Amino acid sequence: MHGPLxxxxxDTPSVTLLTEGTYPHHHGGVSVWxxxxxxxxxxxxxxxxxxxxxxxxxxxxxxxxxxxxxxTAPMWGPPPPGRAPRGSRLRRFRTELEAFLTALLxxxxxxxxxxxxxxxxxxxxxxELSPALRSEDAVRVLARLxxxxxxxxxxxxxxxxxxxxxxxxxxxxxxxLAVPPATDGVTHAVSGGLATLPGLxxxxxxxxxxxxxxxxxxxxxxxxxxxxxPYRWPVKALLLGFFRLLAGEGYRSAALVTPGNRYNRRWExxxxxxxxxxxxxxxxxxxxxxxxxxxxxxxxxxxxAGRVDPIKDLATLVRAFALVREELPGARLRIFGGTPRGAExxxxxxxxxxxxxxxxxxxxxxxxxxxxxxxxxxxxxxxxSSVSEGFPFTLIEAMSCGRATVSTDVGGVREAVGETxxxxxxxxxxxxxxxxxxLLNDPAERARMGEGARLRVIExxxxxxxxxxxxxxxxxxxxxxxxxxDDGRGRRTAAVALAAGxxx
Length: 504
Fold this sequence. Notes:
- By secondary structure, this protein is of the alpha/beta class.
- The chain is 44% helix and 12% strand.
- It folds into three domains: 14-78 and 179-277, Rossmann fold; 87-173, no CATH class; 301-460, Rossmann fold.
- It is globular.
- The two termini are 41 Å apart.
């Protein structure tokens, strides 16, 4: 699928934006961020490589003219065309696949991961990787390997069914390796994980500078999400090994890592990013687009906005609301946002929980709202209950609208609100209820916090600041070209270290 074309602008960098499950095919905070980025830089020539589910998704964002091409990399659509290697090439593939899988399973062999990943990328480029991974040969390699007594997986006695499942999941996860890599400009992954694969290949083959922005920590969210996955431990161990080593390769290969908050920095340094390559760039909003929300509702109301998803931990919010209703029986909770495909049972479970707690009459699921500002205006207090966040747009948008907030202490939340909102531990309904009641019962404090929140956004978190920072970074990286990255022995060139700076 291709977007509108525009003539390239001379003397400006070409940027390949790498996304997964977000822009331009889905709504959400990261998609908003991508749209702001490309729309705010008419002087930059953009291309988008979007990792999607099936490739049949329709765009929900209208890209501006500077987005010259949109290419999808579907993970779950029809199998990619191609044919598995044969003869001597098949024997070599088995050897190289075994090295790759060994890196994922054996902590003492992780150094095999980069070379084997890029070797598999070569098979993907020739259309051989997906059919080879769908073959019995690949399943046999894994079934033989992870039953070796020295490997941790052997104790779980993995079955042939486990091997079939694991190889199938890997085949889908590695499909983005088949995307033709950029040969010039800058690649910019807007999350860790599978979106980084085309950028890593472009850096490895063509020395294209690779920029990684993390809003949330992709690896942490994979760990959290694995609890609910229906696979046995050997399958989970293999997949989490893949995502952990992929995160490390992304951190080490990036010319710059730009977290959306300082909290992420700890994960990035632990994952292998040299500190001088990390530069925090906060998300920003346009205060004029999010003006003061105006009069509060007369009924004490908590509002929440986002996508209805387990990582947002709305169950804690519903439980906290039930405690609020014990003191304020007329209070309401209004939940704004769509339910992604696959999360329908989670939404049903929330409705059932509200009924069990006796507050179903006070909780309303409003669905997607045409103007998100209406969601913030709908509450006296805006809530955020997530167990994982980066630097959430809903929070700084609500702050710009002058609403007091109660948020969980995850990611960059505390950095965002400062002293202008209440921050509580995640998964703690009682603490959340106490904070909500404190603000609902004190109009003066709500007003004071709301005024301070808007001023904080204007001073520190404007869209203009964000766009300016990334424009400078694009020119910086494009100007150094192949000088960015390792010298082949894990050391940075002097030019990179000087340019990258850090948080300062």
